[in-house]
């Protein structure tokens, strides 16, 4: 999973979607070469939508992994793993969730804000740590500061990451593995009227700007 995220440079995040929109996103992501996306489980019907996403992905043999984000409890981690999640993403670091993922060989990306929290997550078995909310805790300057004594930290800033070249370049310049982008990629307005063509265009633009800003 690390190699996929490192190569892709970004974890696109979507949430609050119905199955029709989800199918469009899955097809267009696979068609443009995206290898992993995150579905944030924040709605009452999230489990139902996710199980349908997995069924659609498998039925169409799409080369695409699906991470589930906004996992807050061990029970939810267990449920989504059993439904087919390839990766569990949390906004925080939870000992029980980490232990479950490690035991069941599920890739786990916990969230952290401070250096001690990041190191704690690493000690619990996390390889990549989600830096959240990245823009509110110091931005790229903060990453540069904490990587000075710990250059091997593998971080994924999420929160306030935009598609602007200057923004992305500032993150990659300080050595993040990848970035997480949600509403700045697929706004509520775009998702409400999403077509396959619009989704393909959004993913293509994302891939282009990531490649341009990482060089």
Question: How is the topology of this model organized?
Answer:
Layout: H1 2-8, E1 10-15, H2 19-31, E2 36-40, H3 46-59, E3 65-69, H4 74-83, E4 87-89, H5 95-103, E5 107-109, E6 111-112, H6 115-123, E7 129-131, H7 139-147, E8 155-157, H8 165-173, E9 179-181, H9 188-192, H10 196-214
Parallel strand pairs: 1-2, 1-9, 2-3, 3-4, 4-5, 6-7, 7-8
3D architecture notes:
This protein has helices at 2-8, 19-31, 46-59, 74-83, 95-103, 115-123, 139-147, 165-173, 188-192, 196-214, and strands spanning 10-15, 36-40, 65-69, 87-89, 107-109, 111-112, 129-131, 155-157, 179-181. It has 10 helices and 9 strands. Helix 2 crosses helix 10 (196-214). The chain has 215 residues and is an alpha/beta fold. A 6-stranded parallel beta sheet has the order 5-4-3-2-1-9. Strand 2 (36-40), helix 3 and strand 3 form a beta-alpha-beta unit.
Order of helices and strands: HEHEHEHEHEEHEHEHEHH
Indicate the low-confidence ranges by residue numbers. Answer: none
**Rg for CA atoms:** 16 Å
Strand order of the largest sheet: 5-4-3-2-1-9
């Amino acid at each position: 999973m690390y190699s996929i995220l490192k190569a892709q440079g970004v974890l696109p995040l979507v949430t609050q979607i119905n199955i029709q929109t989800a199918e469009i996103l899955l097809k267009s992501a696979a068609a443009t070469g995206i290898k992993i996306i995150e579905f944030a489980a924040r709605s009452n019907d999230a489990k139902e939508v996710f199980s349908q996403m997995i069924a659609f992905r498998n039925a169409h043999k799409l080369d695409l992994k699906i991470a589930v984000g906004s996992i807050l409890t061990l029970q939810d981690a267990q449920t989504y793993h059993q439904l087919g999640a390839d990766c569990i993403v949390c906004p925080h670091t939870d000992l029980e969730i980490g232990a479950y993922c490690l035991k069941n060989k599920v890739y786990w990306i916990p969230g952290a804000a401070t250096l001690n929290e990041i190191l704690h997550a690493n000690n619990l078995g996390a390889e990549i740590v989600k830096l959240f909310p990245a823009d509110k805790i110091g931005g790229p300057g903060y990453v540069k500061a904490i990587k000075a004594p710990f250059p091997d930290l593998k971080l994924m800033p999420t929160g306030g990451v935009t598609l602007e070249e200057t923004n992305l370049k500032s993150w990659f310049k300080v050595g993040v593995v990848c970035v997480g982008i949600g509403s700045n990629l697929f706004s509520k307005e775009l998702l409400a009227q999403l077509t396959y063509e619009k989704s393909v265009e959004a993913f293509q633009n994302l891939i282009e700007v990531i490649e341009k800003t990482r060089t």
